[in-house]
Structure formats: structure tokens, C-alpha cells
Specification:
78 residues; Roadblock/LAMTOR2_dom; globular; Dynein light chain roadblock-type 2-like isoform X1; 1 helix
Length: 78
């Protein structure tokens, strides 16, 4: 199972219901922004294209773009 959420400030498209989308999108986007800022601090000419994070239950794949950010969540329990 995987879910996809695309947002640019507001959630544009999601396979989750709205409250679940917000529950995942806001903190992951904040984490992605911090990661992008950290990469720019180290090398101003570099940028994050794809950020992948794994937990015991899920894998989060964050793909920032200038107009939107895509978040894919995959279930790792299976």
C-alpha cells in the first residue's frame, strides 16, 4: 500500500482523507524544509531532489519542486 499527497501550501491531491493528509504533510514538509536549508548551508549551489526516510512502519519519500511538493508514503509492514 502506498499513498500520495501533493501540496503547495494547501493540499492539492491526496489518496488520504483531508485530516490524515494534513497530519502527515505538515510535519514532513517542515522536516524537508529543514533538510533543504541544511544542504544549502553546506553548499549554496546544491539542492535536495529527493529525500527518503524510513521508520519501522513506513517509508516517506519527499520530492520538492519549485511549484509543489510530492510526498509518497509506503507501508513497510508487509
Amino acid at each position: 500500500m502506498y499513498t500520495k499527497t501533493i501540496f503547495s501550501g494547501d493540499i492539492m491531491e491526496s489518496t488520504f482523507d483531508n485530516s490524515t493528509s494534513v497530519q502527515y504533510a505538515d510535519p514532513i514538509k517542515n522536516l524537508g524544509n529543514k533538510a533543504m536549508s541544511s544542504v544549502r548551508d553546506v553548499d549554496p549551489h546544491n539542492e535536495i531532489i529527493l529525500l527518503s526516510m524510513q521508520t519501522k512502519n513506513n517509508e516517506f519519500i519527499l520530492a520538492p519542486h519549485k511549484d509543489f511538493t510530492m510526498l509518497v508514503i509506503q507501508d513497510r509492514k508487509k
